[in-house]
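Box 4.2: Ligand-aware structure prediction
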Amino acid sequence: MNYLNRIIDEYKIKDASQPEFLQAMEEVLNSVAIIFEKHPEYEQKAILERLLEPERIIKFKVCWCDDSGKTNVNRGYRVQYNSALGPYKGGLRFNPSVNESVLKFLGFEQVFKNALTTLPIGGGKGGSDFDPKGKSDNEIMRFCQAFMSELYRHIGPDVDVPAGDMGVGAREIGYLYGHYRRLKGASERGVLTGKGLSYGGSLIRKEATGYGLIYFVEEILKENNKEIKGLKAIISGSGNVAIYAAEKAIEKGMKVLGLSDSKGYIIDDNIDINVIKEIKEVKRGSLKEYVSMAGHGEYFEGSIYDMDLKYDIALPCGTQNEINLDRAKRMFINGCFLVGEGANMPSDNSAISYYLEKGMFIAPGKAANAGGVATSALEMSQNSMRYNWSKEEVDLKLQSIMKEIHNQCLSSIKEYNLSNNNYVSAANIAGMTRVIEAMLAQGDY
Ligand code: NDP
């Protein structure tokens, strides 16, 4: 049995209780087999085992008091995956679905995503099974303070720099940073990214993942002599990534037909993004409210991928495993030829194989949503320089980073003779190659 298959089999036994991690591992490893055929010496250096094992997993109790005076206990985690390229970098997710398997899958993907940005950042991920939905501002603040009371001893501007993810936006980052500053007695702005503009945040960070996704999709279209203008898209999710992907898509002349949330979706010929911002960013409500607030459109329960409407592009920006094989088939029948993943692992492995088999373009999350972490790294640079770039400067840097990620994918496609729609293997190969080079240069670790 070859090295790669042996390791996949070993980890399926070792981490049998971690389905999301195993799914990410299989997706990545199966798509980079070609690297290991070219470099048999990597087995002796245990490269796969070194990539698969996180350097450290920190797990802790988060004890906080709700508004009724009741004490609650949640689990907190930080997975410090790989620091060969720089300090661990990756978001914090607050969601009841969070566990070690989910954070290991996210951290593992993050390592290669961060490598693709070519910026000096390693990979990590963290979070809690805390559910922020329905909590008051004071409860959110007390939870964030309790979470940071433990996390602060494991992070730092040159050690590990968390950011937001699902359930963690500017409000949570503000409370987390305030408490870190209090505990450390020092204003180390570079310890967290996604901060508010008044205390060290970067312009465009909030928009970066969604905008970056559209810049990446545009590069694929250009490469294939297609124009973005006039194409029809559907977007799943209506959180941070989805809102700004929709905003940039509309600005570029795409027709966004619908968006979704965890309960249902809206279809509207004339989507009003400001209404969605009001519902999700201000009221923290449900898309159900959209039709009455906007005065147009229709709301349906269920997944946007189960409806039939003709569209060219799907932008999954909600959560993992939203698209299975049946949904992928339906998307193809509906005319979809490009899937741009704003979320992490929104398509399961059978859906990805189907896209590739049908010649659909697949922009994997690792490449397509890297604009968020790249702009976080730009926030770190600004914090170090104690200087702020203008909105235009950050946006131009983001565009050039997304272009460079696309160029790296194209180089892998050429070097390894991959089919021109196989950005999955291309991104994994390009990201992993950088990490392996850095690991080998630094000796056994
Ligand atoms: P948010 O919490 O801001 O938004 C998540 C959105 O997804 C919400 O609208 C939520 O619905 C919706 N959602 C949750 N579950 C489902 C589901 N099963 N089907 C459809 N929609 C669903 O998170 P973000 O926008 O920050 O993150 C979204 C994805 O993008 C995640 O996979 C994240 O890891 C990834 N990502 C985020 C980055 C960032 O910069 N924020 C960077 C790179 C990747 P509801 O409103 O009802 O809760």
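In the box above, the bound molecule is NDP. The mean pLDDT is 97.
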